[in-house]
Amino acid sequence: MAPTDTELLSHAIAEARAGRATGGIPIGAALIVDGEVLATGHNKRVQLDSPILHGETDCLAAAGRLPASVYARATMVTTLSPCDMCTGAILLYGIPRVIIGENTTFYGGEDYLRQRGVEVTVLDDPECIELMREFIAAEPALWNEDIGEDA
Fold it and tell me: Which overall architecture, per CATH, does domain 5-147 show?
């Protein structure tokens, strides 16, 4: 039996928790292909002093180079609505489905994904919401930096 969206989200949540435990931003992602976890990743902007390693881009990097036929069968699972950069990466590689843990604390490019034919599912997961709310309250300047805003 295929895993549920909530079961798939658990892999991204584990990554978000790992990222926060190492002083980073609690956003995680998983790339699922044919029901199997191909790669996971989390936001490593703080840990690696990188302007581009968000959860989704770190996950794609962990997956390595893949043929278009693999991306065409993939689902990107992310704990938070993807920013414009991560939205672009999803579109660039033709990933047809995205599962989002929550979009309450940040509403990213999901409307654009839908406009471009991507199936988007938002789970409104309480754990994802709480992870981000706690983080934003504790480190508002770091959060603003992550989303490209001044404090």
Answer: 3-Layer(aba) Sandwich (3.40)
